[in-house]
Design a protein that fits this description.
about 325 residues, alpha+beta, binds dinuclear copper ion
């Protein structure tokens, strides 16, 4: 049993450590989380193997043989020394793992001075990120841009139900709870790349679509992006936005075609109302209200809060105008 157990444990631990479990480590916190996982593998694989080896050994060696069906086994009474051992050993192991996990947690929750403050507002079903604009205010972005090797302090809020702000490359996550602000400390690594932010709390029909793009970029690229966001945006033509493209692919947080049917662009979504019917004969003002304040115009049979409430912030005035004009035209033929 001992030899089988040792060999099987060694194989199990080797396999457990060789498997590539995690995406890239996009935060310095990631190494603490990953290490907890590896320590748990090393601690738990031998326990599992020992239990299984003893079970299989007993099933084979102490099985009932033909003619023994009516025999009783020997009466067994308690063994105090064994009982103390099998209580104390797991208790010591669990206490050790708890202390280790607690130490890891204090590393994860450490805040850094001069961290970049980013306010994260979650709502059904979108994230909006607010950055300081250098003039005492904030600007909004529906994508999360962060520079490499930078401490970031996220202040997380929710407009409606409980969501959860999570980027798998950070490993750490925090709930967005209505009525309070929660905080998450992350220090990015040098892993430049494009990753995902996802909602990690079941929050309604659109939970699975509640994602945002995370871009970890060089500090120079980040500064450039910040300047572009703060600079006043030109509105209207030249280069008027393409409403059909907005509708099918580029509108943030979710392109309209994901949920709505509109024959003019071949959209067949069924989560929201069919726009060919719903907008027929409606005014531009009504169409604009549908986009910017959808809860005020929920038709019978549909629930409020399914459609993102932040298109007024994520679409530029020119984009909004283009969409309204386009929808009015194609639904009123
Ligand atoms: Cu928000 Cu799930």
């Amino acid at each position: 049993m001992l030899v089988i157990g040792l060999v099987a444990s060694a194989i199990g631990i080797a396999v457990g450590l060789l498997i590539s479990w995690f995406p890239v480590a996009g935060s310095t916190q990631a190494k603490h989380v990953d290490m907890v996982w590896y320590v748990l593998i090393v601690a738990s694989v031998p326990l599992f193997v020992i239990v299984e080896v003893v079970v299989f050994y007993c099933v084979i060696v102490f099985r009932v043989r033909p003619g023994e069906e009516h025999l009783e086994g020997p009466p067994i009474h308690g063994n105090t020394r064994l009982e103390i051992m099998w209580t104390a050993a797991p208790a010591a192991l669990l206490a050790g793992l708890c202390i280790y996990a607690f130490i890891a947690l204090t590393h994860l929750e450490k805040s850094a001075s001069n961290a970049l403050p980013v306010r994260v507002v979650a709502e059904q079903f979108a994230f909006t990120f607010y950055y300081p604009n250098g003039k005492g205010g904030e600007f909004a972005s529906n994508q999360l841009y962060l520079p490499t090797n930078r401490a970031v302090k996220f202040s997380v809020q929710s407009k409606d139900v409980i969501h959860d702000f999570w980027a798998p490359v950070f490993r750490v996550k925090i709930d967005a709870v209505p009525g309070i602000t929660t905080h998450l400390h992350v220090t990015t690594t040098d892993k430049v790349g494009h990753y995902d932010v996802t909602c990690n709390e079941l929050c309604g029909v659109g939970h699975s679509t509640m994602r945002a793009a995370l871009h970890i970029v060089t500090p120079a690229a980040f500064d450039k992006w910040m300047h572009q966001q703060i600079a006043p945006k030109p509105s209207g033509p030249p280069g008027a936005p393409n409403a059909a493209t907005l509708f099918t692919t580029t509108a943030q947080p979710t392109p309209c075609a994901t949920c709505h049917t509109l024959k003019a662009v071949g959209a067949t979504g069924t989560i929201g109302p069919d726009l060919d019917q719903g907008l027929k004969g409606k005014s531009k003002a009504f169409i604009r209200q549908c986009i910017t304040n959808p809860n005020s115009v929920v038709p019978p049979g549909y629930q409020p809060n399914i459609m993102p409430q932040n298109f007024a912030q994520t679409l530029s005035p020119a984009e909004l105008d283009a969409l309204v004009n386009f929808l009015e035209k194609v639904t009123n033929k």
